[in-house]
Design a protein that fits this description.
The chain contains 18 helices and 6 strands. With 431 residues, the protein is mostly helical. It is globular, with a radius of gyration of 23 Å. The structure holds carboxymethyl coenzyme *A. Residues 232, 235, 266-268, 270, 294, 302-309, 359, 361, 364-366 line the site of carboxymethyl coenzyme *A.
């Protein structure tokens, strides 16, 4: 760490402690409390990490109040308009935009690793046909460490590098295979002459019996979804990857842990939950009922695709996604779909509602990504796998950064114990 930029005073029951303060290149400063427990014998208490920075990172910056997102310093709006997912992968992994030669080499490297070990197919057969693809993907990605022994030694930079490439290259293949398995169609091998998003679309939608057709607009929309989900600093799944990695676990195991965490409806599962909700609402006249439920504290229902821990302003990704949703829906002629009409009206009503305004609850990226994915033909249970394959580059970049970080330690949160102490054991016959 650099030199402190100042100090903070903490008074604990009359005793005063000086704590160093470090500035950040953007965003809030941090108070370094690492010595607090040894000096003051107290823990800080922050369930949900609402005010806790758990690491230093130079990958992604979010200003939630202003609704800004930057990858390696580049605003997301510029990247969305001018770059492509694979170039953004390079940027996230290597901290610079590639020149043409670097990009060509990177693309070759990724495309040369898109196939998975043929024996992995046996794993798929072990799952029930109706298994959720996220369940399959979590298992298969974890199993990669049983197949690629030459990239599990985390102390070897070359092995770390190849693990990163493998992960970015294979996730689309693994996700597409999970989809094909669930619908009973033959697996489709990747094609290295297709671009990243197009190849994924091809592996999901082509069949040996027919001619495959893709649309540039759809490929571009998919690529954009990948790009907008590529990283999002220390969210729940990324923190899970870091925590798993802090013990020295191999990268495949760490990413499998991240995928498991992403699945929850409060995180990556929100896009699927959002579309299910739009379908359940069904028609515009039922929206007030659901808005009422979302506002009712005694009802656990929440408007899926609304709200964010960090963004207390419009999610910048949602702005971009909304525009693309309109374009894709025009292309596939879905502008009159009931789910879309419900989505548009729900957004309008919620944005004007005092409950959502005061709590700064705006539509997030998942509100629109589900609408796009639905329009281009993906079933809802593929939405979160698509989020997972997009976020893989973020997870692996954060993992790589963590492994190389000299201040990194095994993650070990503490607790405020509230259970009983010093009970006497009573034999079962006396209880
Ligand atoms: N619908 C209705 N009320 C909500 C919602 C919602 N979607 N989100 C938050 N609130 C209310 C919440 O009840 C609370 O109200 P009160 O102050 O009266 O108790 C207040 O807003 C603050 O909520 P919170 O739970 O303290 O906020 P959080 O930062 O812990 O949660 C969240 C963030 C994303 C988990 C939450 O907004 C949510 O559950 N949203 C729906 C799920 C969703 O769309 N998740 C995708 C997030 S974006 C993709 C990703 O990064 O994974």
């Amino acid at each position: 760490m650099t030199q402190p930029s100042g100090s903070a005073k903490l008074t604990v029951e009359g005793r005063e402690f000086d704590l160093p303060v470090y500035s950040a290149s953007a965003g809030p400063k941090v108070i370094d409390i690492r010595s607090l427990y040894s000096k003051a014998n107290v823990f800080t208490f922050d369930p949900g990490f609402t005010s806790t920075a758990a690491c230093e990172s130079a990958i992604t910056f979010i200003d939630g109040e202003r609704g800004q997102l930057q990858y390696r310093g580049y605003p997301i709006e510029q990247l969305a308009e001018r770059s492509r997912f694979l170039e953004v992968c390079y940027l996230l992994l290597y901290n610079k935009l590639p020149n043409q030669q670097e990009f060509d080499d990177f693309r070759t490297s990724v495309t040369m690793h898109t196939m998975v070990h043929e024996q992995l197919i046996n794993f798929y057969r072990g799952f029930r046909r109706d298994a959720h693809p996220m369940a399959i993907i979590t298992g298969v990605v974890g199993a990669l460490s049983a197949f690629y022994h030459d990239s599990t030694d985390i102390s070897d930079p070359e092995q770390r590098e190849i693990a990163c490439i493998r992960m970015i290259a294979k996730l689309p293949t693994i996700a597409a295979m999970a989809y094909k398995y669930s619908i009973g169609q033959p697996y489709v091998y990747p094609r290295n002459d297709y671009r990243y998003a197009e190849n994924f679309h091809y592996m999901c939608f082509s069949v040996p019996a027919g001619k495959y057709r893709s649309y540039e607009e759809v490929n571009r929309a998919l690529d954009l979804i990948f790009l907008l989900h590529a990283d999002h600093e220390q969210n729940a799944s990324t923190s899970t990857v870091r925590l798993a990695g802090s013990s020295g676990a191999n990268p495949f195991a760490c990413i499998a842990a991240g995928i498991a965490c992403l699945w929850g409806p409060a995180h990556g599962g929100a896009n699927e939950a959002c579309l299910r909700m739009l379908r359940e609402i069904g028609s515009v006249d039922r929206i007030p009922e659901y808005i009422g439920r979302a506002k009712d504290r005694s009802d656990p229902f929440r408007l899926m695709g609304f709200g964010h821990r960090v963004y207390k302003n419009f999610d910048p990704r949602a702005h971009i996604m909304k525009k693309t949703a309109d374009e894709v829906l025009d292309l596939v002629g879905s502008q009159n779909k009931p789910t879309l009409q419900v989505a548009k009206e729900l957004e309008r009503i919620a944005l004007e509602d005092e409950y959502f305004q005061t709590r700064k609850l705006y539509p997030n990226v998942d509100f629109y990504s589900g609408i796009i994915l639905d329009a281009v033909g993906f079933p809802t249970d593929m939405f979160t796998p698509i989020f997972a394959l997009s976020r893989t580059v973020g997870w692996i970049s954060q993992w790589k950064e963590m492994i190389a970080d000299p201040i990194q330690k095994i993650g070990r949160p503490r607790q405020r114990y509230t259970g009983p102490v010093n009970l006497n054991y009573i034999p079962i016959e006396e209880r």
